[in-house]
Amino acid sequence: MTVLLLGGTAEARQLAAELVAAGCPLISSLAGRVRDPALPVGRVRIGGFGGTDGLVDFLAAAPIEAVVDATHPFAATMSRHAAEACRRSGTPLIRLARPGWSAHPLASTWTWVPDLAAAASTAAWSRRPLLTTGRQSLPAFAGWHDRDVCVRLVDPPSDLLPARWRIVVARGPYTLAGERELIRSHQADLLLTKDSGGAFTAAKLTAAGALGVPVVVVARPPSVPGVRSVDDVGAARDWALERCGTIGA
Ligand code: NAP
């Protein structure tokens, strides 16, 4: 009678609130990466499942009748594991991924790259980049110890970063005024980011455009073939409620 909601995003928290309010039995799952995470309402479990096999076991033990994968668009491993575990166990699965920024009015002015390695080589000219690609991306820029990088992270870094780097610890949503000030105060000559999409972290794109700062955007990893995907919370909610209704009938 229970839906598993793979979370770690604002959309997952919104969906959890709507499903709990509608009386849909639900377990939200978080990876446990972030210190002091914003918790969704309802039941929550935290930590990895132990790969695809562990997730298959979890689905059977709970038991889980349907899965909503509302993880971040760049959480490709979790999405792959969810697809494989649901296929093996015959559990219905839907992917909820917010729209990317390809339709942003400034998108055609940005340099799009396929991955972090391409981002690092495309941005090799930059001396004062503002880096907002997340903690796990930092190894791709390890060679940048000789430049004045400003890196924004949700939590303080666990590894030592180059002495010249400026670390800004902050959590969205970010304002346009704040983003302008960050770019201006760092005298950033480049914004390097990834196509997370959504409104929470989009102000930096407008700020960079207004200040004439070039932008490099890492494109999303490909979606898992064969998995139905929706980009708004309402569609995922209706799908899950249908399963709750069917299950509960
Ligand atoms: P990932 O690389 O796709 O996943 C790595 C492993 O983390 C998975 O194999 C799984 O471990 C565990 N995991 C990931 N999401 C989980 C979840 N919701 N519940 C339980 N275990 C989970 O994931 P990631 O990119 O590190 O992201 C981790 C979490 O942070 C996700 O919940 C995601 O929504 C959130 N997040 C990610 C980003 C980003 O840029 N990647 C940004 C904002 C938020 P096992 O194999 O042991 O099951």
**How far is the N terminus from the C terminus?**
10 Å
The low-pLDDT segments are none
Each distinct ligand: NADP nicotinamide-adenine-dinucleotide phosphate
In DSSP terms (H or I, runs of 4 or more residues), the helix count works out at 7
Largest sheet: 6 strands, parallel
Strand order, main sheet: write it out. 3-2-1-4-5-12
Gyration radius, to the nearest Å?
19 Å
Strand content: 15-25%
What share of the residues lie within helices?
A: 25-40%
User: Helix and strand succession?
Assistant: EHEEHEHEEHEEEHEHEEH
Compute the number of strand runs. Answer: 12
In terms of quaternary structure, what is this?
A: single chain
Calculate the mean pLDDT score and round it: 96
Structural class: alpha/beta
Shape summary: elongated
